[in-house]
Amino acid sequence: MTGYVFAIALSAVVVTLLFFLLRTRRIREKYAGIWIVLSIAVVVLGAFPELAFWLSRLVGVQTPVNLLFAVGFAVLLAVCIQLSSEVSNLEEETRTLAEEIALLRLEVRTGFDRGRELHPPPPDGASGPSAAHGAAPAPPQVDGSTDVDRLDHEGS
User: Fold this and answer.
1) How many DSSP H helices and E strands does the chain contain?
2) Is the C-alpha dihedral spanning 119, 124, 129, 132 positive or negative?
3) What is the pTM of this model?
4) What stretch or stretches form a coiled coil here (predicted)?
5) How far apart are CA 18 and CA 4, in angstroms?
6) What is the DSSP code (8-state) at residue 112?
7) Within a domain: 81
8) How would DSSP label each residue in 114-147?
9) Long-range contacts for 43-47 (Cβ within 8 Å, ≥24 apart)?
10) Tens digit of pLDDT per residue, the chain (156 long)?
């Protein structure tokens, strides 16, 4: 088996694997797209090897292998930068969600909604139904520590 046939067969396996991963939702379309395009490019270069020689002469590279290594390096660098960007965005989103959950836990545990009482006590001398039948207990007093400090001590 020649190297060209091997490259075409390997690209076909990669495309099949990518479609399987897409169907099972283990990879998103925006990530699979680049790999499918690269696999198709390998199939084209495997089917028409003279195209690699023509491209290397066009660019001014001595051998097509050097051009393939340079293009491969550039593609992998671009993929690494793109994935680093995605990871950074996900870290920021995770941090924001953790802060929102911490604030919601504080509201649920203390009965306060960021400074406002959720269940204000009835006015002095009021005889409403909540005062007569023992309404919900008054919210605990805030001791001056920050919301984050309190959640750190309670959650740990």
Assistant:
1) 6, 2
2) positive
3) 0.59
4) 80-107
5) 21
6) E
7) yes
8) TTEESSPPPPTT---HHHHTT-SPPPPPP-S--H
9) 43/7, 43/8, 43/11, 43/12, 45/7, 46/4, 46/5, 46/7, 46/8, 46/11, 47/4, 47/8
10) 688 889 889 989 999 999 999 999 999 888 888 888 888 898 898 889 899 999 999 999 999 999 999 999 999 999 999 999 999 999 999 999 999 999 999 999 988 665 555 555 566 655 544 444 455 555 555 555 555 555 555 554
Mapped onto helix, strand or coil, the DSSP state of residue 73 is helix
107 located within any domain: yes
Q: Reduced to 3 states, what is the DSSP secondary structure of residue 113?
A: strand
108 in any annotated domain: yes
Report the sign of the C-alpha dihedral through residues 84, 87, 92, 93, in that order: positive
What 144-151 contacts at long range (C-beta under 8 Å, 24+ apart), as own/partner pairs, is 147/102, 147/103, 147/106, 148/102, 150/106, 151/102, 151/105, 151/106
Structure tokens at 117: 């009482």
- Alpha carbon distance 49, 125 (integer Å): 94
- If one counts the domains in the chain, the total is 1
